[in-house]
Amino acid sequence: MDPILFRVDDGLARITLNRPQRLNAFDPDLAHAWAEVTAEATSRDDVGAILLEGTGGSFCAGGDVQAMAAGGVAAGEDISRLAEVISRGIRSLTESSVPIVAAAHGTTAGGGLGILMTSDYAIVGADSRIGSLYANIGLTPDLSVSAQLARAIGERRALQLVLQARLLSATEALEWGLVAEVVSAEDPGDIADRVKARAEEVARFWLAGAYRAYGEAKRLIRSQPSRSFADHLSEEARTIGAMFDTPDAQTRIAAFAAASGSRRSSAPESQEKA
């Protein structure tokens, strides 16, 4: 069974973690497949949005602890190399100008939290649980968790999450700003499908609109910490100018101007009739 599934359909790249028997936890095979697939998804001209999801009952449980315990990882240097491989995929996604939505049903824990935060818009189920739990097995955060968590929810809340054996409920994750939406269903068995369907709706919304502008807006926000304030203002100015010259922007600007002009010209007539 392939550890990861990948397909592109009408501009939407769907990346599916496919180790349901291990809650989609990363082993070496999944790690290398992840790095390859994310690089491809973010480099293809026919991809305008990306959807991250998992098979089975969970989104991602981080690293495969059972494989570690069984001797699948011989030493700490092996863990470090594996984390570097997975992090290449995380960088491919977060540094890209492609908007990314995550359908994170079920449990997300450990490094899975980093995969979740790789998305720009995360959707979970009403029964979802999200946490760090690294210290439960004597390890420290990796896969961008310590790099992204405080930016996402604030330093104090990030510390609360990594310093306790705590799993946030879906409602808590929404209140903390860790996820964008919570999806429910009358039948609990339908929640995973509902989460994935809603995630696809979000991706299709981007694709039906100015998806390149959405992607560049994502890139600007994601990349801001790497620049000084002055440099970032310059990058904003450069980007809006580059987008202005695209055919899509020219068409949309002309349509907006025409619609605005039509509303203004009809206003006095409407007032007179009133």
Automatic annotation (TrEMBL):
EC number: 5.3.3.18
GO molecular function ontology, one term from the record: isomerase activity
An annotated GO BP: isoprenoid catabolic process
Keyword terms, alphabetized: Isomerase
PANTHER family named among the record's database cross-references: ENOYL-COA HYDRATASE, POLYKETIDE BIOSYNTHESIS ENOYL-COA HYDRATASE PKSH-RELATED
Similarity comment text for this entry: Belongs to the enoyl-CoA hydratase/isomerase family.
The protein's name: 2-(1,2-epoxy-1,2-dihydrophenyl)acetyl-CoA isomerase
Organism: Microbacterium immunditiarum
